[in-house]
Amino acid sequence: MRNWTGTDLISFYQVLHDSYGHQHWWPSDSAFETIIGAILAQNVSWNGAFQAVCALSEAHLLDPHSLYNAGPSLIAPLIRSSRYYNQKANKIMNFLEWFLSSCKGEIAKMMAIPTERARDELLTISGFGPETVDSILLYALEKPIFVVDAYTRRIGSRQGWFKQTATYAQMQEYFMDRLSPDVALYNDFHAQIVNLGNKVCKKNPLCDTCPVRIGSGLPGCIHGKNQQTIQSPEII
Q1: Record's superkingdom (predicted)?
Q2: DSSP secondary structure code for residue 212 in this structure
Q3: pLDDT > 70: percent of the chain
Q4: What pLDDT, in 10s, does the model give residues 171-218?
Q5: pTM of the entire structure?
Q6: Alpha helices of the chain — where are they, by DSSP H?
Q7: Nearest to residue 173, comparing CAs of 197, 152, 193, 146?
Q8: Who's near 24: CB < 8 A, 6+ residues apart?
Q9: How confident is the model at residue 224 (pLDDT cuts 50, 70, 90)?
């Protein structure tokens, strides 16, 4: 395995940024919308989640009180495009129960909760795993938490950063132990990894088009094109 330094990881990120530009992630009009989007994005492409967010917006339900009062029976049919819509409607309600009771439905109160405490409390909500929680903390609350996912596992194991069997915590620690706690960097770095995984470093990778390989000066992958990958929408 390769024990890259923070400088090495920044070089990797810079190659992706130079090739693809800033990803401007997470696309939303408010922190609350980002939170709902993070729930809806579980186990589905962003397009499906985005359609569901738009449906809630068109129904004037992107407000915590209105959404809670609507209830799962009204929410579920509006979010069909996000898959598993009945379960996700219940997850939204679970979050809202916590949000309204603990934060009075105010994002500012949620942002004021210390990071570790907020993470611990969100992880107690039924249906919330670390990827969803960390996405909320980073993208909605601007807390310095590095988000990892199935794309991180695939790319990281191919780069030799960690084993394919690494846990969510082990992958996250690899970045957070080496990078300064920079919200903007964490935001776009994760977005660049997702973009690379979508476009190039697929299950059957398009290595000939990878910017990390083409004249980047970086060492490139250690396993080659035929490496099998583990896919997981919500890594534990």
Answers
A1: Archaea
A2: T
A3: 94
A4: 999 999 999 999 999 999 999 999 999 999 999 999 999 999 887 888
A5: 0.92
A6: 6-20, 31-40, 46-58, 64-70, 72-78, 85-102, 107-111, 115-123, 130-135, 150-159, 168-176, 183-199
A7: 146
A8: 191
A9: low
Long-range CB pairs of 81-89, under 8 A, 24+ apart, other chains included: 81/44, 81/48, 81/49, 81/51, 81/52, 81/55, 82/40, 82/41, 82/44, 82/48, 82/49, 82/51, 82/52, 83/43, 83/44, 83/48, 84/42, 84/43, 84/44, 85/52, 87/127, 88/39, 88/40, 88/42
Peptide bond into 26 cis (omega under 30): yes
Give the Cα-Cα-Cα angle 30, 122, 103 (nearest 5 degrees).
Answer: 60
Q: Is the pLDDT of residue 170 over 70?
A: yes
Q: Average pLDDT, whole number, for the chain?
A: 93
211 is written with which tokens?
Answer: 């910017």
* CATH architecture of the domain with residue range 31-140: Orthogonal Bundle (1.10)
- pLDDT exceeds cutoff 50 at 156: yes
Tokens 């534990």 map to which residue? 236
Rounded to whole angstroms, the Cα distance separating 64 from 47 reads 23
3-state secondary structure of 149: coil
